[in-house]
Amino acid sequence: MTNKITSIPIFKNITVIGPGLIGSSILRRIQKDPTISEYTVAVDNHPEVCYRVKKLKIANKVSSDPVESVKNADCVILAIPVGAMQEVAKQIIPHMKKGAILTDTGSTKASVIAAITPYLTSDISFVPAHPMAGTEFSGPDAGFESLFENRWCLITPTTSTGKESVYKIERFWQAMGANTRILDIRHHDKICAIVSHLPHLLAFTICNTADSLADETRSEVLDYAASGFRDFTRIAASDPIMWKDIFLNNREAILEMLARFTEDAQAMAKAIRWQDEDYIVKTIKKGREIRKSLINNKQA
Ligand SMILES: NC(=O)c1ccc[n+]([C@@H]2O[C@H](COP(=O)([O-])OP(=O)(O)OC[C@H]3O[C@@H](n4cnc5c(N)ncnc54)[C@H](O)[C@@H]3O)[C@@H](O)[C@H]2O)c1
Ligand SMILES: O=C(O)C(=O)C[C@]1(C(=O)O)C=C[C@@H](O)C=C1
């Protein structure tokens, strides 16, 4: 059965490969707004994910066969870990419909583009995209239809991405509730290294540092964790496969941002050692300003 619509949908058939947190949130939004797509197929290589998506009734069809599932799609969305993009793209592109759009939600862009481009044919337009929204949870039960509401979706076209397909993917993400922005590929990876990848690296590391403390101190960390440490543990609870893939696929930008951060942390250490009050207060004030502007931009 297809979704009931009252106006021409952006896409007739959408196939989502990887209906986890991001993919299932997309499917839920389409279910709520059938002007996005008339018919949806969800594909996953984990039987338990297929089982849950069927139970949740968030797609018209659920399958474990990517090749069969892309044949009728006008738009195929890869919502899988960035390290799995190449293998899946290689498998599906030869079976996609002429004129169809291939897009993704991956957190790194240069590596995903490099992985997919060799398999593209002239009749498939690839529109790389990255919704800047998520949580520390993963899997189909973690998704929700308002996940992308008022968040940014960054689109990084390549030199061969058609203008018309970029426009369609922009409309698609706007229908998801997001604001869209076109960004240069390398610039995207640099920005995400500082606003997303480095904070996760710090969160994973601080939890490991706390865990490697002496036994009695470690148990106290857990007993008395105030909100500072607790906030780090939220993002440190994120999926290991997804984050291993992100770190290995945006190496240069992450290492550059980590080096800059290390220099700044050293400067702060020096200020504490020499009791440089001005430097310490100036640094803290900058943090407060950033928090205020996030709240003003409705991103906090
Ligand atoms: N979680 C976030 O906050 C967030 C935000 C924005 C973008 N992203 C990106 O979106 C993508 C999906 O992230 P997520 O959080 O939804 O992950 P998730 O783990 O919740 O879902 C990924 C799904 O892909 C499936 N999968 C993995 N390999 C597959 C394959 N070869 N074939 C078919 N299915 C496969 C998994 O079984 C899983 O159901 C990733 O590239 C991630 O970097 C994540
Ligand atoms: O909000 C969170 O918990 C997230 O981890 C979401 C988050 C982020 O770092 O902001 C994670 C990865 C993305 O690619 C985009 C968004």
How many domains? The number is 2
Number of helices: 12
Assign the CATH superfamily of the largest domain.
NAD(P)-binding Rossmann-like Domain
Strand content: 5-15%
Low-pLDDT ranges? none
Assembly status: single chain
Mean pLDDT figure:
95
Question: How does this structure look, described?
Answer:
This protein is of the alpha/beta class and 300 residues long. It has two domains: 11-183, Rossmann fold (3-Layer(aba) Sandwich), CATH 3.40.50; 187-296, 6-phosphogluconate dehydrogenase C-terminal like domain (6-phosphogluconate dehydrogenase C-terminal fold, Orthogonal Bundle). It contains twelve helices and nine strands. The chain has helices spanning 21-32, 47-56, 66-70, 85-92, 110-116, 163-175, 185-211, 215-224, 227-236, 240-249, 251-273, 277-296, and strands spanning 11-17, 37-43, 61-63, 75-78, 101-104, 125-127, 129-131, 152-155, 179-182. The strands form two sheets. It has a six-stranded parallel sheet, sandwiched between helices. A three-stranded mixed sheet has the order 7-8-9, with helices on one face. Helix 1 links the parallel strand 1 (11-17) and strand 2 (37-43). The longest helix has 27 residues, at 185-211. The protein starts with 10 loop residues before the first strand and ends with a helix. The mean pLDDT is 95. Residues 17-18, 20-23, 43-46, 49, 79-82, 84, 87-88, 105-107, 131, 134-135, 138-139, 239, 242, 246 line the site of nicotinamide-adenine-dinucleotide (NAD). Residues 107, 132-136, 196, 235, 238 line the site of prephenic acid. One of its GO terms (molecular function) is NAD+ binding.
